[in-house]
From TrEMBL:
GO molecular function, one term: hydrolase activity
Domain of life (superkingdom): Bacteria
Annotated signal sequence range: none
Keywords attached to this entry: Hydrolase, Signal
UniProt name for this protein: PHB depolymerase family esterase
GO cellular component terms, A-Z: extracellular region
Keyword Hydrolase: yes
Source species: Lichenibacterium minor
C-alpha cells in the first residue's frame, strides 16, 4: 500500500498561518457547497482540510497539522559513492541541496538529474522513497536534490502556484537553475544531458523549470504534478488540484508523466494537461498499451512520437494508485511500491533525449 498521510492536500500549498491564509482566500464555503471533481464528488482531502480549518483558532500555525513519520534512515552507499550537502548562493538567494555522486565516474561527462521533493519531504526522504540513487549508481548519473526550507514554505512545498515563481531568472526557478549550473561547473557533467523531475509540488516545479529553461533541461519528469501556470495564487492552486488548471500552451519539451487515477490530492486531469502543454502545439502520433507491473498494479502507457519517430511524451496512468511515487520504497514517504518503477522509467526516457539533438 502507498505510504501517505491522510492530510495530503493541506501540505501541498504554502500555508504559513491561519490568519495569512484567511487574508488570501475568499469566504470559506460550507462543506455541502464545495465544487465537485470532474466526474462528480468532492476530493476527500479538500473536504478534510476545510473541516480542519473551520475548527482552528486564529493564529494557529498550519505547519503543525497532520502526523509526520520518522525521517528515513539513509541507506549505506556503495564504496566510492558520495551523498554530500552543498549550497547554491546567487542573486535570488541561497538554496541547499544534496548531491549523489556515483562510485564509477571514470572522468567522463555524466548526465545530471535534478530531483524536486514534495511537500513535507526532504532530499534524504525523497532519495530513499524514489530509490533514484540506486538507479543512478547503475547508470553512472549525478543526482541533485534541492532542499526547500520552512522559511520559504511552512510545509516545505515548492511555491509552484506563486506567479512570481514561474518566471525565468526569478525566485525558485532561478535558485534551482543556479544550483544546476553549479553542479555543471564543479563536476564532469554532459551539458546536453541535464534533466529535472519531481513529485507533487516538486512535479509542478519541474514543469515550470522545463518551460522556463528549455536551454538547460533536455527533458522533464512530472509525477503527480501540474502543468506550468496551472495556478497563480492559492485559491487557484486549490482549484487546479481539484479539477485541473488553465495552463497556457507551452514550448515543446520532452516529458514523462506518472499519475494515479485514484489520486485525491491532485486530480489526474493535471497529468493530461502537463502532456498537452509539453506538446507545444506539435502534431504527434500516439500509441497506447496496457500492462501490469511486477507488483500487480495495472497501468496504461501512452507514448507520443514526432514525425521522425522520436518519443516526445510518455503518460503512465496508474490504475488504483493514489498520490505517491510509483515503484518507490516504503523507506520513504509518499510511495506506491506496487507500481512500475518510475525512477527507472524516467531515467530510460531521459537518456533518449539530448539538448541540440536533431
Amino acid at each position: 500500500m502507498p505510504r501517505t498521510s491522510a492530510f495530503d492536500l493541506g501540505r501541498f500549498a504554502r500555508l504559513p498561518s491561519l490568519d495569512a491564509l484567511r487574508a488570501k482566500l475568499p469566504p470559506m464555503p460550507a462543506l455541502g457547497d464545495l465544487p465537485p471533481l470532474a466526474g462528480g464528488g468532492v476530493a476527500p482531502g479538500l473536504r478534510d482540510m476545510l473541516a480542519r480549518l473551520s475548527e482552528l483558532k486564529p493564529g494557529s500555525p498550519l505547519c503543525a497539522m497532520g502526523p509526520r513519520g520518522p525521517a528515513a534512515a539513509e541507506a549505506p552507499l556503495p564504496a566510492g559513492a558520495r551523498f554530500t550537502e552543498f549550497a547554491h548562493r546567487g542573486a535570488a538567494g541561497t538554496l541547499g541541496y544534496r548531491l549523489y555522486v556515483p562510485s564509477r565516474t571514470a572522468g567522463q561527462p555524466m548526465p545530471l538529474v535534478v530531483m524536486l521533493h514534495g511537500c513535507t519531504q526532504s532530499p534524504e526522504d525523497f532519495a530513499a522513497g524514489t530509490r533514484m540513487n540506486e538507479v543512478a549508481e547503475e547508470r553512472g548519473i549525478l543526482v541533485a536534490y534541492p532542499r526547500q526550507t520552512q522559511g520559504a514554505n511552512a510545509q516545505k512545498c515548492w511555491n509552484w502556484f506563486d506567479a512570481a515563481g514561474q518566471l525565468r531568472d526569478r525566485g525558485e526557478p532561478a535558485l534551482i537553475a543556479g544550483l544546476t549550473r553549479d553542479v555543471m561547473r564543479d563536476f564532469a557533467v554532459d551539458p546536453a544531458r541535464v534533466y529535472v523531475a519531481g513529485l507533487s509540488a516538486g512535479g509542478a516545479a519541474a514543469a515550470i523549470l522545463a518551460q522556463c529553461y528549455p536551454d538547460l533541461y533536455a527533458a522533464a519528469g512530472v509525477h503527480s504534478g501540474l502543468a506550468a501556470g496551472a495556478a497563480r495564487d492559492m485559491p487557484g492552486a486549490f482549484a487546479a488540484m481539484r479539477g485541473g488548471g488553465r495552463a497556457a500552451a507551452g514550448r515543446a519539451v520532452p516529458v514523462i508523466v506518472f499519475h494515479g487515477d485514484a489520486d485525491r490530492t491532485v486530480a489526474p486531469v493535471n497529468g493530461e494537461q502537463v502532456v498537452a502543454q509539453a506538446r507545444g502545439g506539435a502534431a504527434l502520433t500516439a500509441d497506447t498499451v496496457g500492462g501490469r507491473s511486477e507488483g500487480g498494479l495495472a497501468f496504461t502507457r501512452k507514448v507520443e512520437c514526432d514525425a521522425a519517430g522520436r518519443p516526445m511524451a510518455e503518460h503512465w496512468m496508474l490504475h488504483g494508485a493514489g498520490h505517491a511515487w510509483s515503484g518507490g520504497s516504503a523507506a520513504g514517504s509518499y510511495t506506491e511500491p506496487r507500481g512500475p518503477d518510475a525512477s527507472r522509467e524516467m531515467l530510460r526516457f531521459f537518456l533518449e533525449h539530448r539538448l541540440g539533438a536533431a
